[in-house]
Amino acid sequence: MSTLVELSNTLHKELKLRESCLADFAASQQLMRLRVPEVGKAATNFPLFFSRNQQDGSWVLSALGSFEPMQNVFVEQGRWNAIYQPISLQTYPFYLMQSPKAENSYTIGILETSDAFSKDSGEAIFDSAGRASMHLSKAKNLLEASIKQDIDTYRFMKEAESLGLIKPIDLQLIFEDGNTQNIAGLCTIDEDKLQSLTTETISALNESGYLIAIHAMLLSIYQLNLLLRKHNERNAHNKITQLKIEVAKDRVAS
């Protein structure tokens, strides 16, 4: 597996971003990672869920972009077609990494073997004087801001978990041909648990800003209808005729 290396305006001065790299990457993202400050905007486009990171088991906050793995229905004809674009897509193909030169410091890293890069054509990452391109500058600013946002997101998810607000669900899809598909591993806000919280707890959630995110996640479930419509536009030969949300009885949120 490729590892991140620190981006350098000398070692990587010839690298260019392929014109279609952002759309190609987005088109493969069934789950788009979010940070809690994005939830309000993202909920206007996507259904939002909690899920477990398969590597370390930590909670991840994501927007669902498709019912099918390695697909995203919000990329149409090679272009992003949604009002909001998650920061995790905007910063691609740059990542935040621990600096190899300074302890407790971060820098911008890349995967040198990524298909996003070319030496022949595309937008140069650095100009002839070694200055960052507009795209790199924007990505760098977003990534630097994400350090605090990642901490806020971790605290939000730990708070939701400690209050028992995370409810595992399954999405059951029924197709025209009679076949069914089950999407497991997703969790949403448990509305019944939310309603049972004390006035003091609700007030604390409101003061921290988490209550807005919680309500936005609940409302975002209705965006499954948009996802369904976009799926059926792409798959007219075998449309989804029904979508059921079921509590996952064989899973627990902890």
Largest beta sheet: strand ordering = 1-9-8
Q: What gap, in angstroms, lies between the N and C termini?
A: 30 Å
Secondary-structure-based class equals alpha+beta
Number of domains: 1
Helical residue percent? 25-40%
> Are there runs of 5+ residues with pLDDT below 50, and where?
none
Q: How many helices?
A: 8
Descriptive notes:
This protein has about 250 residues and is of the alpha+beta class. The chain has one domain. Helix content is about 30%, strand content about 25%. The chain is built from 8 helices and 14 strands. The strands form 5 sheets. It has a 3-stranded antiparallel beta sheet with strand order 1-9-8, covered by helices on one side. A hairpin with a 4-residue loop joins strand 12 and strand 13. It starts with a strand and ends in a 7-residue tail after the last strand.
